[in-house]
C-alpha cells in the first residue's frame, strides 16, 4: 500500500475521545498517525455519517478502531467506503444486519450494566443514558486506578437510548468484507465476554486477543496491548 495508514479512533457509550490518550501516545511513538474523532452517541446511522465525514477529510487509507458502541458505528461507517482498509474492535460490538447493542448484550449472561444506568428524558421522547457516577469505576473501569476512573465517570458522554436499540442498518456489515482484529478483557462487566468472543469468531478476525482481568475500559487500563494490536493491524495492512 503506497500511502501511510491513518488510525481513526471512535469512542463508545459512557466514554469520550480522551479515553484514547494512552493509545494515541503509543501509536505516535510507533510513527503511526492517529486521530480520535468525536462520537455524538445519538444513533448508529447519524454517528456513522460523522465518522464517514472524518474519514473523507483524511482520505485513504484509514484503519477504523471502535470501542464498545463505537464498534457498531465503525461497522456501519466502513460499508462501501473505499478509504477504509480494516477494522479493530476494542471491547466492542460487531453487529450483523438487524442486530443492536441491547440485544447482543442480553443474548449472553454476565452484563451488570443495566443496574447502573440512569436515564434523563429528552424532548423527543427518548432518553439520555449515563452510568451512575459513583458506580462507574466498579462497573466500567475496575482495573483503572481510582482517581482516573473517577475522572472517567465525570467526563463520560451520555448515549441516547435509541442508539443502543437501533438495528444495524447495512445489509452487509463491514466486518464481512474487511479484515478485523479484536481485543477485550475477560472481566468486562458491560458486554459479556462470551458475546465478545462470539462476535470476534463470527467475524473471522485476523487476531483475537483476550486480556486476563481487563475491564470494559481496556484501552485506558491496557493501552500497550491495545496499541500493539493496532500496530499489528497497520503492519499487516501495509505489507
UniProtKB/TrEMBL annotation:
<dbReference type="InterPro" id="IPR000073">
    <property type="entry name" value="AB_hydrolase_1"/>
</dbReference>
<protein>
    <submittedName>
        <fullName>Alpha/beta hydrolase family protein</fullName>
    </submittedName>
</protein>
<dbReference type="InterPro" id="IPR052897">
    <property type="entry name" value="Sec-Metab_Biosynth_Hydrolase"/>
</dbReference>
<dbReference type="InterPro" id="IPR029058">
    <property type="entry name" value="AB_hydrolase_fold"/>
</dbReference>
<keyword id="KW-0378">Hydrolase</keyword>
<dbReference type="GO" id="GO:0016787">
    <property type="term" value="F:hydrolase activity"/>
</dbReference>
<feature type="domain" description="AB hydrolase-1">
    <location>
        <begin position="7"/>
        <end position="228"/>
    </location>
</feature>
<dbReference type="Pfam" id="PF12697">
    <property type="entry name" value="Abhydrolase_6"/>
</dbReference>
